[in-house]
Q: What sequence folds into this?
């Protein structure tokens, strides 16, 4: 079935999502090999460029999460090396990875996204944290959700239910980044919608509903099998499901993404889908939602990844 | 990878009558696990340690010995010859008690520190970590109290937690465990109708605190425990790695009936061979052998014979001296760098041997909350909370100087100082009102042993 040659799966990196990325990369690599692809998992370190120059791959499948993987940096380097790769271009990644920017683009395209404030830590230092936080609470109300403007896996992210909790949440957030996104917290059904484009336009996969045992879909709930229940398709109305799917495809399109993405949304009690963020290197671990959505859609994870690589190779020709 | 809101409502209006009412939990056995498996979860701390293991990071987190200082070519030749000459033994099962020849050599090693033991009293284990597991297995029922220093070795706390024992920490100062505090802890337990099953202590070059139990306190500790009928578990992996003076006499040397002594080749030879041992009173020893049998049938014959061969044929005492000199230089480098670079308000211990400096941050700082920023700045440590069973230690961190080379130690301390300075500024901005969220449990991995 395959006409692919040598393929590299990029996994690891130095972000706190390294371990998750390695799990994604190994799973992806195994699935590709099962589909007859000569795939190898490699890290993004000082050995990468010499290895690519010595033995150029037909294409690369980036599975690095977090900084360097999703902010476009590694993809920019792949461009410099004239190596085709699966997924969004470096330029699109830069927009998508920065959550406030992605929200602005999504809102301009008509999507609903929680009202938010984005501020660097210097602002709190220079203007006084108490005064700034007071204004944020006055503007957005409570509860809030605080997260680093760049990054993922819920690292440094968490809900804030009272004004007294906010300073500690800011400190937790700034441990993972220098700019915070403070959003009005939307209560509802959390869903993840994968988008795949196999050459005939971006298509939304069935929404996966996420129900963590202990309320918060934090790092532990994400990567400890058994800590979260997933419903595919999500237990939402047909209208809400269509709204979520349309939102994901719109986000994918207006952000200029390519091949695959995953959009995280909250569907509130009125059925409105709120765009939270989009991911250009979705998790592919055994607890990740994109492989679940592919399976629910009757698609083979390995076959889809193979076909995306074929598209990447064709782009490179 | 996303950060969602992660907050799900219950019974909201848009939910339909589901065609698929049952979701997937990925793990079909989620409702079957024992209660003791509840803490076995993915955690942010473990994710950060995974990054810290990369060479780009200066890691003060691991307690890994600098095995590159071994004559690896000689050991390689020795290992090959061992299999060629004794493969039928080295690749076969062996007694759960351990190889008799190795047990004899272990007694020679212990004699250097003043422990006089018979090879029959020695049980070989998979590192001293397995000895900790076996000791806890045979003594502690769920809910039993164990005494341990404050702070205490993270691997011991992990073993105690696995058997659902309750740990009561006893304070230390610069001279190690405080006898009066131990006495008080025993008295308070008795007043509550409880009795600790044993005292776990690392008297020499403590992990993580770096301090050594003063000679004059050792008899007092023995007397207190003797009077209370309290068994002592003396863990001594670093005893031969003192820089400034001869080893102090182990507790076991003065009360063989009241002390189970744990030793290890992980720090004086190679951690990868996973060979440690326990020396115990005969009745305890018999139970340890049976417990070891049920756990692993027997230890690795190959590893045991490799260590035996190393001790029989190589100048291992000289090698220990090489390690001592190397670690002393690294300790001096770390202490000098800390002195030169760390901001005011930081305090640290000055170990006379072993691998670790225990650093206290300025008031209001939280080492665990600061770890992500440190790893992003390419330096790592172990947050102090990992060395307590009761949530203490937020203001502390353990710094290991054993593995990074001196230039890397200097660079790592430079990075750490900048991280601490930034954290001080952040806390000044937002106050020090605790830490938001939970970075997860700190069950020990080999990277923090």
A:
């Amino acid at each position: 079935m395959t006409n692919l040659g040598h393929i590299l799966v990029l996994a690891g990196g130095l972000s706190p999502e390294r371990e998750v990325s390695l799990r994604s990369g190994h799973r992806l690599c195994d699935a590709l090999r099962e589909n007859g692809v000569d795939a190898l998992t490699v890290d993004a370190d000082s050995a990468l460029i010499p290895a690519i120059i010595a033995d150029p791959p037909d294409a690369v499948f980036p599975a690095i999460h977090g900084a360097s993987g999703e902010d476009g940096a590694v993809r920019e380097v792949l461009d410099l090396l004239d190596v085709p790769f699966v997924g969004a271009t470096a330029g699109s990644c830069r927009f998508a990875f920065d959550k406030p920017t992605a929200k602005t683009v999504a809102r301009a395209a008509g999507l609903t996204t929680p009202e938010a404030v984005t501020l660097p830590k210097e602002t709190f230092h220079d203007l006084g944290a108490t005064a700034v936080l007071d204004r944020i609470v006055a503007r957005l109300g409570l509860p809030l959700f605080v997260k680093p403007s760049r990054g993922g896996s819920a690292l440094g992210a968490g809900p804030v239910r009272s004004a007294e909790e906010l300073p500690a949440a800011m400190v937790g957030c700034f441990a993972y980044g220098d700019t915070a996104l403070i959003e009005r917290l939307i209560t509802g059904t959390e869903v993840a919608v994968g988008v795949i484009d196999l050459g005939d336009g971006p298509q939304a996969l069935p929404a996966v509903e996420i129900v963590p045992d202990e309320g918060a879909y934090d790092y532990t709930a994400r990567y400890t099998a058994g800590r979260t229940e997933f419903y595919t398709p999500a237990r939402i109305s047909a209208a809400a499901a269509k709204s979520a799917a349309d939102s994901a495809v719109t986000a994918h399109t207006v952000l200029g993404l390519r091949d695959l993405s995953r959009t995280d949304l909250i569907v509130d009690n009125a059925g409105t889908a709120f765009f939270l963020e989009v991911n250009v290197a979705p998790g592919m671990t055994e607890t990740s939602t994109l492989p679940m959505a592919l399976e629910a859609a009757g698609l083979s994870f390995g076959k889809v990844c193979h076909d995306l690589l074929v598209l990447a190779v064709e782009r490179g020709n | 990878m996303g950060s969602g809101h992660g907050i799900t409502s219950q019974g909201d209006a848009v939910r339909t009558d589901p065609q698929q009412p049952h979701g997937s939990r990925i793990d079909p056995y989620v409702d079957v696990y024992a209660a003791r498996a509840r803490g076995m979860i993915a955690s942010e701390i473990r994710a950060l340690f995974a990054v810290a293991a990369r060479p780009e990071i200066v890691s003060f987190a691991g307690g890994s010995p600098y095995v590159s200082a071994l004559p690896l070519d000689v050991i390689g030749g020795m290992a090959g010859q061992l299999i060629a000459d004794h493969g039928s033994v080295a690749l076969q099962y062996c007694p759960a008690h351990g190889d008799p020849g190795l047990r004899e050599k272990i007694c020679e090693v212990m004699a250097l520190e003043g422990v006089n033991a018979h090879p029959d009293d020695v049980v070989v284990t998979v590192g001293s970590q397995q000895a900790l597991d076996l000791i806890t297995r045979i003594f502690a029922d769920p809910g039993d109290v164990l005494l341990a220093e404050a702070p205490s070795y993270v691997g011991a706390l992990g073993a105690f937690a696995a058997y659902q024992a309750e740990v009561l920490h006893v304070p230390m100062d610069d001279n190690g465990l405080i006898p009066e505090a131990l006495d008080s802890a025993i008295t308070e337990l008795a007043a509550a109708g409880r009795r600790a099953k044993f005292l776990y202590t690392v008297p020499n070059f403590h992990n993580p605190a770096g301090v050594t139990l003063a000679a004059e306190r050792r008899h007092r500790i023995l007397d207190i425990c003797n009077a209370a009928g309290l068994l002592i578990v003396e863990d001594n992996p670093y005893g031969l790695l003192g820089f400034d003076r001869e080893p102090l006499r182990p507790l076991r040397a003065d009360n063989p009936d009241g002390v189970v002594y744990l030793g290890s080749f992980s720090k004086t030879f190679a951690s990868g061979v996973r060979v440690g041992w326990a020396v115990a009173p005969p009745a305890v020893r018999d139970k340890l052998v049976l417990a070891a049998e049920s756990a692993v049938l027997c230890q690795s014959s190959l590893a045991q014979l490799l260590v035996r061969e190393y001790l029989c044929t190589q100048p291992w005492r000289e090698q220990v001296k090489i390690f001592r000199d190397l670690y002393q230089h690294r300790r001096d480098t770390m202490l000098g760098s800390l002195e030169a670079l760390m901001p005011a308000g930081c305090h640290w211990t000055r170990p006379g041997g072993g691998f670790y400096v225990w650093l206290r941050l300025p008031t209001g700082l939280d080492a665990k909350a600061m770890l992500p920023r440190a790893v992003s700045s390419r330096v790592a440590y172990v947050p102090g909370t990992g060395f307590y069973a009761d949530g203490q230690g937020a203001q502390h961190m353990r710094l290991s100087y054993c593995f990074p080379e001196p230039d890397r130690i200097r660079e790592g301390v430079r990075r750490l100082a900048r991280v601490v300075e930034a954290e001080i500024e952040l806390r000044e901005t937002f106050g020090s009102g605790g830490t938001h969220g939970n970075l997860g449990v700190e069950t020990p991995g080999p990277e923090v042993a």
Observations:
- DSSP finds 13 helices and 14 strands in chain B.
- Residues 8-18 of chain B have pLDDT under 50 and may be disordered.
